[in-house]
Amino acid sequence: FFFFLTDNFAHRTAVRHALANDKDWQGKFISAALPLIEKQHNEIAYLVPWCQLGKPPKEGGVYEWVTFQMKPGGPALWGEAFRAAINAHINTGYTKLISVFHTEYGLLNTVHVIWWNESPDHRAAGRHSAHEDARVVAAVRDSVRFLESQQNVLLVPLQCSPLK
What we know:
Belongs to the NipSnap family. InterPro entries: Dimeric_a/b-barrel (IPR011008), NIPSNAP (IPR012577), NipSnap_domain (IPR051557). Residues 7-52, 63-162 form the NIPSNAP domain. This is NPS3A protein. The chain is α+β, with helices and mostly antiparallel strands. It contains 5 helices and 5 strands. The protein has helices spanning 9-20, 23-33, 75-92, 120-131, 134-143, and strands spanning 44-47, 62-70, 96-105, 110-117, 147-155. A 5-stranded antiparallel sheet has the order 1-3-4-2-5. Helix 3 (75-92) packs antiparallel against helix 5. It is globular and about 55 Å long.
């Protein structure tokens, strides 16, 4: 996964232009990465209004990138139930929320949630506890009626990542 956080479309354009003209970026990253890329998927998503971009409580750890494909209708249909499910997870303390993004361009009704955990084992234990927590079960049960699919990916930051 590779993503840029930008303030708006003008900022996105400026960042992309700067990278396209950055010889160091081209030589050290793009030239090395390009032969390894089999496919590319682009989308533009925004941080949902009720979520601030969080930071991990300490250096290290792993991230879980969860992609939810929700039923058509957008946040007006499923937003309240989805937010309640996210808040139920936050309130238990089993994991730390980093961000929630919703697509603007690309496959619509897609929501990306990024969680931080101390380790993969810590995340597994938190997931097990959440499955037995009545608060989480009730909130998730209400939100899954709007869910089409879900994909979870474990991300381990490289040493060069600002998220390490």
